[in-house]
Amino acid sequence: MADPAPQKILAFLTEKWGDKDCQMCGKGPWQVQDKVFQLSQFHHGNLVVGGPLIPVIPVTCTSCGNTILVNAIISGAIDPGTEEQEKKA
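Given the sequence above, the corresponding C-alpha cells read:
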C-alpha cells in the first residue's frame, strides 16, 4: 500500500475540523503521521483472518499526546482501489 499524502489529510482536517485546538489540553499543534495503520476486529487477542480492517492515520497533539484516528480512505489520504490494483499487477 502506498504511503498516504500528508497534505491531503491536512486539507481534509482543515475543511472538516477547522483550526481547533486539542480537546484535552486546549493547545496544539497537531502532527499527522506519514504512515497508515490499521484497526482490526477484536477477538480476545486472537487474529481474525479475513476480518474487517479499518485504515487509519494517527493525528497527535504535540503538547499533550492526545491522539485521534482519521479514516485514511474517507479523508482521501489513500485510494481505496490501490490495494486491489497492486494485487492484480
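The first strand starts at residue 30 and ends at 32. Try to locate this feature in the C-alpha cell string yourself.
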